[in-house]
Amino acid sequence: MSTIDPAEGVAAATAKTLREAMDRLLTGRPRRTDGRLIKDNLYKEADVSRATMNRARAVLAEWDQRTKATGSRTQGEARRDDELQELRAEVKGLKRQHTELQTKVDAAATVIAALHHDNQALHAHLESRTGTVVTLGGPWSE
């Protein structure tokens, strides 16, 4: 039977098991859980009961200190969140670029429509004229 370490609140072997589970969770190498940095995963990863984990006061204090630094996110989650932030910034830039290009397309469409209207008016004017069109000499008239 294991002797309870008063400083730990549990047997030294149990504290060691909990710390090993904590290390696996914090380094993103879980064996028994989804890897989220929650106490529920700590006791499951260590394969001990919730009550046993709750008696391990020193381990829980260490857990709180170490997870506070990461905001309860695994390394994978932190990487994912960083990548999402970068992608959101990229999307924002692309939206701004799209808006600028759409403005240019709209302006070009307006100019094209005006030119088309002018071209139609010129054709109508030419068709309404009476007279003969004379082709001038040159290499293009052959």
Descriptive report:
The structure is a single chain. By secondary structure, this protein is mostly helical. The chain is 68% helix and 0% strand. The protein has five helices and no strands. α1 packs across α2 and α1 runs parallel beside α4. The longest helix is centred in the last third of the chain and has 54 residues. It starts with 11 loop residues before the first helix and ends in a 14-residue tail after the last helix.
Which features does this protein show?
142 residues; mainly alpha; 5 helices; 0% strand
The major sheet is characterized as: none
Number of separate strands: 0
Mean pLDDT equals 88
**Amino- and carboxy-terminal Cα gap:** 113 Å
Cα shape: rod-shaped
Oligomer: single chain
Low-confidence region ranges: none
Could you give a quick summary of the protein structure above?
Helices cover 68% and strands 0% of the residues. It is built from 5 helices and no strands.
